[in-house]
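New to this. Please check this fold:
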Amino acid sequence: MDKDDFSVSGRRVVVVGAARSGIAAAELLVRRGARVTLTESRATFDQADRLRGLGVDLELGGHRASTLEAADLIVASPGVVLEQPVFDAARARGVETIGELELAWRWVKGPVIAVTGTKGKSTTTTLIARMLRAAGRDVLLGGNIGVPLSAQVDQSTPDTIHVVETSSFQLETTTTFRPWIALWLNVAADHLDRHPTLEAYADAKARIFANQTTADWAVVNADDPVVMAKAARTRAQRVSFSPSGSIAHDFAADGEWIVRRTAAGVERQVPVSAVALTGRHMLHNVIAAVAVAHIAGTEPEAMVAALHGFRGLEHVMEPVATVGGVRFVNDSKATNVEAARRSIESFDGPVVAIVGGQFKGGDLRELREPIVARSGSVVAIGEAAPLVHAALDDVITVEDARSMADAVDRAYALARGLSAGASAEAEAGVVVLAPACASFDWFRDYAERGRVFKEAVRALEEKQRTR
């Protein structure tokens, strides 16, 4: 399909799901002349009246098969499960069903840099945008992070570079989406409550390369065998990065520098000392960002400038406070087992991890080795607490908590116990919120979980101060 030929003027378009991206898609479609119905399983939502005022028809309390079957186009939000009879019937009638990312892609005028992976997407996407802006480029950051791509369409020019975080849910509903540069960071078990197998999850991620041509670029993690196997089919020019430094060509850490290795020699890009992020795995994200920024024509000086003062995103290995020698770190965005494992491995001393929530799949036993190696303990929270016990409590101490405040208090006591006899000023280890699970059992999202964690830490800090 030629992007220039895509039009919705006068067409009946049904948007499914009134989350952030669905609302942005509905607004964009109305502006482009479509007759829009937004269908939502909830009985109401915050922006319902505003959308009605824009001319969007709302169908609340469920998705009606008759509405979907009468559509000329269906646009689904990423959180919507499309394997349902109501959608099957519409597809059987030949109704095209796409996602919000695909819709927006058909109208953006500038090139797209897309980032996917199980862990590190948000940090890496943000870093790439910062590096390109430092080089003077016109950049819009969005997708699965911040602003939906649909909300950027009207600002898009041929000179605008869209740096877009993309999830498996977004990519699985793409049909023509073709990023100029596609970066796949890694893959590990995640969202297995939605994807039937790890293979299906990886296949959804691999769609980031599906429509690329020899004019495009695929940036891949040389240390991840699944990524490399899936990327072998790409027609794009392939560039590798290696967190372990094990490749002879392309981008890696080499001593005190992030470098580009070529047949002609080693080109220094960014000093490792410029990276002010907590956690060894954060260096991996920087290497990947450097590779993408280099392809996009960014000089090393701009990369270093972008790193200056960047200490990471909220809820991603975020330092919170040190209380009685115990350091508290908020990694609420570690919503899968692999991410939690990397969080725990970021610390050398004793670690108490707060783990649990709404389980999405994976093997919690993968946390055993890093916690045992750090003489650690675990505080279990939420629906997954019994699973945490089953996976870990034969090798380490696992305590249950009734709330996040209770979890923080218990983790603090455990951390102090790991270094009994230390002074109040001595380093007594780390408490890290590394849930390995989604947040939806206790919280609206991972951000609310992280904020509540930080509030509990500050309450503990105040309590210790006034003793």
